[in-house]
Amino acid sequence: MENFQYYTPTKVIFGKGTEEQAGRLVKEQNCSRVLVHYGGSSAVKSGLLDRVFRSLEQEGIRYVSLGGVVPNPRLSKVYEGIELCKKEGVDFILAVGGGSVIDSAKAIGYGMTNDCDVWDLFEGKQAPSGCLPIGVILTIAAAGSEMSNSCVITKEEGWLKRGCNTDYGRCKFAVMNPELTYSLPRYQTQSGCTDILMHTMERYFSTGKTMELTDGISEALMRTVIRNVKILMEKPGDYDARAEIMWAGSLSHNGLTGCGTTGGDWASHQLEHELGGMFDVTHGAGLAAVWGSWARYVYKTSPGRFAKFAVNVMGVSDYSDDVDKTALEGIKAMEDFYRSIGMPTSVRELGIELTGEQIHELAYKCSFKNTRTIGRFQVLNMEDMEKIFTMAR
Amino acid sequence: MENFQYYTPTKVIFGKGTEEQAGRLVKEQNCSRVLVHYGGSSAVKSGLLDRVFRSLEQEGIRYVSLGGVVPNPRLSKVYEGIELCKKEGVDFILAVGGGSVIDSAKAIGYGMTNDCDVWDLFEGKQAPSGCLPIGVILTIAAAGSEMSNSCVITKEEGWLKRGCNTDYGRCKFAVMNPELTYSLPRYQTQSGCTDILMHTMERYFSTGKTMELTDGISEALMRTVIRNVKILMEKPGDYDARAEIMWAGSLSHNGLTGCGTTGGDWASHQLEHELGGMFDVTHGAGLAAVWGSWARYVYKTSPGRFAKFAVNVMGVSDYSDDVDKTALEGIKAMEDFYRSIGMPTSVRELGIELTGEQIHELAYKCSFKNTRTIGRFQVLNMEDMEKIFTMAR
Question: Is B91 in the same domain as B201?
Answer without folding.
Answer: no
